[in-house]
Description:
Number of helices: 4
Order of helices and strands: HHEEEEEEEEEEEEEEEHEEEEEEEEEEH
Mean pLDDT: 77
Structural class: mainly beta
Radius of gyration: 26 Å
Low-confidence stretches: 11-31, 242-249, 260-299, 409-430
Amino acid sequence: MNRKYAIALGLLLLGTLCVAQDETNTGNEETETKGKPMKAAGLDMEVNKRLGSAMFTMFAGNNSEDSLSFGLAKILEVTADGTEITEDKHVCKFDKELKDNVEVICEDGDETKGQYAGLDENGNKTNIPYVMSVKTCPLSTCQDSAATIKIKSYIFTSGGFICQPDCEQGENKTMLQSPVFNGTAKWDVEIEGWKFCETCGDNNDVAAEKLKIFFAIAAKRKGKSAQARKNKGKQFDWKKCEIDAGISKKEDFEESVTKRQADDKRPDGNTDGGSKKPDGAGGNQFQDKGKGKDRKPSKMSGKCKPARGTSFEGKPEDQESFGFADSDGGNATMTFRMYPMAKIDGTEVIEADKGFEGPNVTEVQEAMTGSGETQPRKYVVITVKKFSTKLVYDPTGDMSESGGTTTPVPSSSPALGISFYIVSMFVLIINML
């Protein structure tokens, strides 16, 4: 083959590929809004740069028919009795389909790897490896110029138990736990610098006392949309648990719970007969049967920690769990989980009936962009009491009903395929010279 024709063919090939690549990355509105994707432990997480309802969309490996999405639809302030405050700069609507929505573009941070402080199945401290990235989203378009939302996205690459507010046990301290697996996703949602309205209403006579956050979660099962529903907690399976807290059987434990309720000395304030968190803080004292004295604080942690409900093959679970059902009545395998607890102002822990409400599935009639007509939207909603500096809340998502994802990572990617094609063609051309 003539050398000049071979060189011309090579340049033509390279130019064609460059143009195709340029057309892929520019001129496409959807591509321009994409943030940095995350891939780890068989989980593919697509990320949107715009804060909104589908900010994160997850797929298990190369299965594109099943997905789980998570995002923030809107945030608004409410009065002490729950009345919503609709004044400007005190409502942020991020879903672009909602009327009066605002555009919030987030800045992507670098992806890092690290170790998350947690517990193993026996309640011993351990470090759980993860991949993590950070997004910072300024709220000047709908709130104070200093207000931001920062979202830390984690993908765990091994199993264990994470805790809220932390994994340190102590008397009269609440410590909630939740299992994570290879491929479990977790987000730390931090709202900082939010300024609450102090003189609102027509007569400037009402004040904001709470912040109401509408999380959008959705799933697809075999390509069909699936709606969120709250799962019912299952009772803890004592047969699968090695009782290492000095209580040899279920009856002894239930008796200790009954006695504490009767004496009204339960530090967690729970009076539901033990269906929720029977061990309270995980380190409470139990009355020793027949001896009239207290045992030492028990080590009720990890797989042997009784919880309000269980999931994932009998592992203790302190998060509220949400599943998904499609229009045909089929259940999707994805699971979304949220703690009934949050942290504010660095150290203060707020729980149910103590400054925290939810999480609950709520349907809202929303005015939509353009027509202004209302349509029903389902959200998972939490409400937190007024805070001074920062709110931190951390939901969790799994692509498999048994936790994490077991789908293998695809062995190749389009980028690798293009690279191989380019190299092969140039080798061929050189051999033809």
